[in-house]
Write a structure and sequence with these properties.
The protein has ten helices and 13 strands. With 325 residues, it is α/β, with parallel strands linked by helices. The strands form two sheets. Strands 8-7-6-9-10-11-12 form a seven-stranded parallel beta sheet. The model has no long low-confidence stretch (mean pLDDT 97).
């Protein structure tokens, strides 16, 4: 079987991949831009492609059996252009890492470890116990709101419960209350959901329905000390409305990991928005890193290799986005 890892992102999953498949696999890494005839020919002859995008600029792999996205989002894959023979799958395995990111960011807001360390190294006992003006916060007893209750939302809920938080959920399809969910809303109850929580975590995928789902009306519905966390896709939160809510202190703050601008050819170090979020003191900015861990890579490798074996042995696939002929 001829297997292509296309691009830098996909190549991250290639180390040790041959050992997961066993003999008979011909594996090749190709760059993001297929500039040479050799690279384009190799892509066109692939039977399995691991990649994050497919569009009209790429050769058509006529004999393709499997296109596997090495992540959850497949919005950059034009399914209509892929040959009908190709099954399309995605994979998750990032929910553990993202849940840890969310909890660590919330804990960092409540417990000033870095500031306490910095000050004490200068002889400043600013956070010393014993006086009311030196207390710090905690997350126990707070209410976390999960906008989206898929893999990521469920993983965050489990960890939030371990910290004795209340968990509210807003989801397109109804979610039953359970040991993980204290209260549930549907998306037509978004304003009530937003007004009921101290923290809003956005993890919905980017679709026409969810683009800008958190906009000016949503920020108006939030509590004035609420914190927004976006670990889904940047445009699920309206860019201008988010900036204005933070600039005007309409909400308490934000933790943003998914953005509106990303590095690309010709601009390797852009600021992540057209608006100056970097000048605001009430936002924690990270470069879409929350799910990118060694554990995520190992878990996704196992899923991709397993699906390749299944596809070429005629077994049912996992995480099917589109069935192939």
């Amino acid at each position: 079987m001829r297997i292509i890892f296309h691009g830098e992102n996909a190549a991250s999953f290639s180390q040790g991949f041959a050992e997961l498949l066993g003999p008979g696999a011909e594996i090749r890494m190709l760059p993001d831009v297929l500039a040479s005839d050799e690279h384009r020919a190799a892509y066109a002859q692939a039977e399995a492609i691991i990649g994050v995008k497919f569009d009209a600029s790429l050769p058509t792999p006529a004999g393709l059996r499997l296109f596997h996205v090495p992540g959850a989002g497949y919005d950059a894959v034009d399914l209509e252009l892929l040959p009908a023979s190709a099954a399309v799958c995605n994979c998750f395995g990032h929910e553990q890492a993202i849940a840890e990111y969310v909890m660590s960011a919330l804990l960092a807001r409540a417990i000033p470890l870095a500031d306490a360390d910095r000050r004490l190294r200068q002889g400043d006992w600013a956070w010393w116990a014993g006086a009311p003006e030196r207390v710090h916060d905690e997350i126990a007893g707070r209410t976390i709101g999960l906008l989206g209750f898929g893999h990521i939302g469920k993983a965050i809920a489990a960890r939030a419960k371990a910290f004795e938080m209340q968990v509210h959920v807003a989801n397109r399809s109804p979610v039953a209350t359970s040991p993980l969910v204290d209260r549930a809303f549907t998306l037509d109850q978004l304003a009530a959901f937003l007004g009921s929580v101290d923290v809003v975590v956005v993890s919905v995928p980017l679709t026409e329905e969810t683009k800008g789902i958190v906009g000016a009306a949503a920020f108006a519905a939030m509590r004035p000390d609420a914190v927004l966390v976006n670990v889904g896709r940047g445009p699920t939160v309206d860019e201008e409305a988010l900036y204005e809510a933070l600039r005007s202190r309409r909400i308490g703050g934000a933790i943003i990991d998914t953005w509106y601008r990303y590095p690309q050819a010709g601009d390797a170090s852009p600021l992540p928005s057209k608006l100056p979020f970097q000048d605001l003191s009430n936002v924690l900015m990270t470069p879409h890193m929350s799910g990118w861990t060694n554990g995520t890579i190992r878990r996704r490798q196992a899923v991709i290799a397993g699906n390749i074996r299944r596809r070429f042995s005629g077994e049912p696939l996992e995480n099917v986005v589109r069935k192939g002929n």
